[in-house]
Design brief:
The complex is a heterotrimer of chains A (about 120), B (about 325) and C (about 400).
Chain A (H helix, E strand, L loop, with lengths): L3 H9 L22 E3 L9 H5 L5 E4 L6 E5 L8 H5 L5 E3 L14 E4 L10
Antiparallel strand pairs in A: 1-4, 2-3, 3-5
Chain B lengths: L2 H12 L4 H22 L15 H10 L11 H19 L16 H21 L4 H32 L4 H11 L3 H4 L1 H14 L25 H25 L11 H22 L5 H27 L1
Helix pairs in contact in B: 2-10, 2-11, 3-10, 4-5, 4-10, 5-6, 6-7, 6-9, 6-12, 10-11
Chain C lengths: L5 E5 L12 E7 L2 E8 L7 H6 L3 H9 L6 H16 L5 H29 L3 H22 L8 E2 L2 E2 L5 H27 L1 H7 L7 H6 L5 H4 L7 H4 L20 H24 L17 E9 L2 E9 L5 E7 L1 H13 L7 H7 L12 E3 L4 E3 L3 H14 L1
Antiparallel strand pairs in C: 1-2, 2-3, 4-5, 6-7, 7-8, 9-10
Helix pairs in contact in C: 2-3, 3-4, 4-5, 4-11, 4-13, 5-6, 6-11
The chains are: A alpha+beta (about 120), B mainly alpha (about 325), C alpha+beta (about 400).
């Protein structure tokens, strides 16, 4: 009987369930979500590859022409790559809705920005 | 009987207030129970199927009908297949004796209160048989607990069901309802103790929290229901809802005057409102308590419920004179 | 045996074991438990071996995932071990932030546990309310660390993120709500007759048995034994904040509930005190990658009891051996002892009252089924066997 008043009080309150996906809560700023890489600053040092705990980053090539593949289905979202990168290329945004029907949709590819056709 | 009477009776038995109506009522009350229970816990309950989740119990039923029906190899096959059907049929048969649309029920004879007590005992027996025929350790423990529980609630329930009969002077449920209708005094006002004890014993009979011991999910998986799947489980879940309707209708008829009420509103509306209130009270009790242990339940029932029931019957006898 | 006992298996799949597959084979006579045999090992993941092939920084994230609920306890025991091997002293602000996150995790863990205990005795309403209130703690943690579980907040040499003053304000508001709710739930558990009937006098574990069978954590403290790593061997800042050890003498499930309720209130007090007194200093120091050879034993008080880490480093950037002794492993014999003589209906609540986290628990041993002999292999034997296997395949 001890909980009866609490029960009746809850009848009057609006239910606390969020009717996702119709109602959403804005994620806090520091949430570690999907990767966003700024390839212009990348020098291809490979520190991110060696420091990732789940081997989710793959470097193709070396140095200033290196390109990267990030396997989001292996990624832990620990942001160690963001912390260890010397040039602040990697940033984890707050996008957390990453479900996909197919594992190939979870591979992010980061290529070098193509320069415009200039022949100087 | 003349052919038109025969057809009318057949329609009454099959549709209204017969089997189809009762099945629909079972689904509606399951929805009421789930929604109210959820709102007490600050969440939504069924939401998307139909307006405000109204069709959810029906959707669950249809889904279970489509699932695979597995019978364990060691089970007692005829009994295993028959018990879900029996468990659905018994509450419906009991509900025919309870007046819903007027002051007399579809089936009404002197002594049908004893018939209903017999049917409720039969429900527990068939539950035990259903569990025993499953030959699964969890089911057997659930069945044993159902039988134990029957030892606890059977006596106070029978005593307290007879109190309105003594006050009304008849063992016919339709007669009890008629007495409450004509005298205007519902028995809950003159025998409140009996009403409370009947509610508790009915909760134990239909195996709801705090007495859902035979079906205790966290202790013995699903208790006596463990091995049933597919169509048999659909029928069993429907029979559990039907028992809820039966308990609410019985309480209404014996203590709240059944469909008796003031003239312009049809009797069925009064009946539905009163049974809905009982269902809401039962849902509230479901949210309020934890589950008892079987020995605590049987001890408590013999230490408290039976003496109080005997006290109630003594008071009624003294009042009737 | 002359009496025929009924064998009831609880697990590996069973609703009483919400968390992990383990097998408890009960011998039941009527409704009384006569004997219980525990079998673990269904969930062995090879984390200790995986730790040997990853660097120390990568191991932080590996070790975090040993357990989802008490994840920070594992990190908070691993990082001091590595820092001890490196002879590194972390700045005071980092110590305070570590304590705050640790205690927030303890609050979330105890709220989760109380909800599960309510569910095990059939009291689903308590379960729903508690998990609704737990969201407040998880939201505070999400603000501070960026994730609701597996926080990735610590690093070798300090913490990765700072707590700003708005975060501290929001945290304090949330904590006030949590404190008021926990006081209400404690009062409810003491006053609700059905809960008392299921919890009082159930699952008795006498103090001598608890000490002999090496129980740890709230299980031990509910039998009246005053033993808590935060008081016996203070680490982080527990000697500077208002902290006291909570014990109850009831030796039953009700005492374990009360111990955890009070521990939550103590934790809330610690966090509020620490949030007001965060010292000004950097939050991390740079740590070298290579760790000189050393052997370190580190222990902390996880929400479930005493957690011990043994680390051996060999001068490279990967550890040589990491051994984890989780509190649930130490509690299993005590749980088995407290189940015997009780009722079948008490099994879920007694199992749950020990707050089992079976994911952290598993060990492997060899058993010869025909003659019942058991043995374990040493590390050298395991290595030789694995090299032979690789040669053949």
């Amino acid at each position: 009987m001890a909980m009866q008043r609490e029960l009746l009080r809850n009848l009057r309150k609006k239910p606390i369930t969020l009717r996702y996906p119709f109602e959403r809560v804005a994620p806090p700023e520091g949430l570690r979500g999907k990767h966003s890489w700024n390839m212009e600053k990348c020098i291809g040092c490979g520190i991110c590859v060696s420091v990732c705990p789940s081997f989710a980053i793959e470097m193709i090539g070396k140095g200033l022409t290196a390109e990267f593949k990030v396997y989001l289905d292996r990624c832990l979202f620990c942001a160690q790559c963001q912390e260890s990168c010397p040039k602040e290329v990697i940033k984890l945004t707050t996008e957390y809705e990453l479900a996909a029907y197919n594992r190939d949709q979870l591979i992010l590819e980061w290529k070098r920005p193509t320069k415009s056709e200039s022949t100087t | 009987m003349a052919p038109t009477e025969l057809i009318i009776t057949l329609l009454q038995v099959l549709i209204f207030p017969g089997i189809i109506f009762l099945l629909g009522l079972a689904f509606v009350y399951e929805w009421v129970d789930r929604k109210f229970y959820a709102r007490l816990q600050n969440r939504y309950g069924p939401l998307h199927t139909g307006p405000s989740g109204f069709l959810q119990p029906f959707a669950d039923f249809v889904k279970l009908l489509a699932k695979e029906d597995i019978t364990p190899q060691a089970a007692d096959k005829p009994l295993f297949a028959a018990t879900p059907i029996l468990l659905l049929a018994i509450p419906i048969a009991a509900l025919f004796c309870i007046p819903m649309t007027g002051l007399t029920a579809l089936v009404s004879f002197e002594g049908d209160l004893i018939y209903i007590i017999f049917l409720s005992t039969l429900i527990s027996m068939v539950t035990f048989l259903a569990a025993w025929s499953s030959t699964n350790p969890f089911s057997i423990i659930g069945g044993l607990r159902a039988a134990f529980q029957m030892l606890g609630y059977e006596v106070p329930m029978a005593i307290v069901m007879v109190c309105p009969a003594i006050a009304a002077g008849t063992l016919n449920i339709s007669g009890i309802v008629a007495k409450q209708g004509t005298s205007g005094l519902w028995f809950i006002l003159s025998q409140p103790l009996g009403f409370i004890i009947l509610l508790i014993c009915l909760l134990a009979e239909i195996k709801r929290v705090p007495f859902d011991i035979p079906e205790a999910e966290t202790e013995i998986v699903a208790g006596w229901l463990t091995e049933f799947s597919g169509r048999k489980l659909a029928l069993l879940r429907l029979s559990i809802d039907m028992e809820l309707v039966f308990a609410a209708a019985l309480t209404t008829a014996l203590y709240l005057g059944g469909p008796a009420g003031l003239a312009p509103i049809p009797a069925i509306i009064y009946f539905l409102v009163k049974t809905t209130i009982i269902v809401l009270i039962m849902s509230n009790l479901r949210a309020l308590f934890a589950r008892f242990r079987i020995d605590q339940m049987v001890h408590g029932s013999w230490k408290f419920l039976t003496p109080l029931a005997i006290l109630q019957v003594i008071l009624v006898e003294l009042a009737v004179g | 045996m002359s009496e025929a006992t009924f064998q009831v298996p609880v697990g590996p799949q069973h609703p009483a074991l919400k968390e992990a597959p383990e097998n408890f084979m009960f011998s039941i006579d009527g409704e009384t438990v006569v004997d219980v045999k525990a079998r673990i090992g269904y969930n062995h993941r090879g984390i200790e071996k995986a730790a040997e092939s990853r660097s120390y920084i990568q191991n932080i994230y590996l070790v975090e995932r040993v357990c989802g609920i008490c994840s920070i306890a594992h990190v908070a025991t691993y990082t001091p071990a590595v820092e001890e091997a490196l002879n590194l002293e972390i700045p005071p602000r980092a110590k305070y932030i570590r304590t705050i996150i640790y205690e927030l995790n303890r609050i979330a863990s105890h709220y989760l546990w109380l909800g599960l205990a309510g569910h095990e005795i059939g009291f689903d309403t308590l379960f729903m309310y508690l998990w609704r209130d737990r969201e407040i703690a998880l939201n505070i943690l999400e603000q501070i660390t960026g994730n609701r579980v597996t926080y990735a907040a610590f690093t070798i040499g300090g913490v990765r993120r700072d707590i700003s003053s708005e975060m501290a304000e929001k945290a304090k508001n949330g904590l006030s709500i949590l404190e008021e709710r926990m006081k209400y739930y404690k009062k409810l558990c003491l006053n609700e007759p059905t809960v008392l009937k299921r919890a009082v006098g159930v699952g008795i574990l006498k103090p001598q048995d608890a000490i002999t069978l090496c129980a740890v954590g709230p299980l031990l403290r509910a039998s009246g034994v005053k033993s808590d790593v935060r008081a016996d061997d203070p680490y982080l800042v527990y000697d500077e904040v208002p902290f006291y050890v909570v014990t109850y003498g009831g030796c039953d499930v009700a005492s374990r509930v009360l111990v955890r309720c009070d521990e939550t209130l103590v934790s809330i007090g610690i966090i509020k005190h620490a949030l007001d007194r965060l010292p000004e200093s950097p939050i991390r120091v740079k740590a070298p990658r290579i760790v000189p050879p050393a052997e370190v034993v580190s222990r902390t008080e996880a929400p479930r009891g005493e957690l011990i880490y043994y680390l051996r480093s060999n001068g490279t950037d990967k550890p040589d051996r990491l051994k984890i002794r989780t509190p649930t492993l130490a509690n299993i014999p005590s749980v088995c002892k407290s189940l015997i003589g009780g009722y079948l209906a008490d099994i879920p609540i007694v199992l749950a009252a020990a707050d089992p986290c079976f994911t952290c628990t598993d060990r492997m041993a060899f058993v010869n089924v025909s003659n019942g002999k058991r043995w374990v292999w040493t590390r050298e034997q395991l290595r030789r066997y694995s090299m032979k296997w690789h040669q053949q395949n």
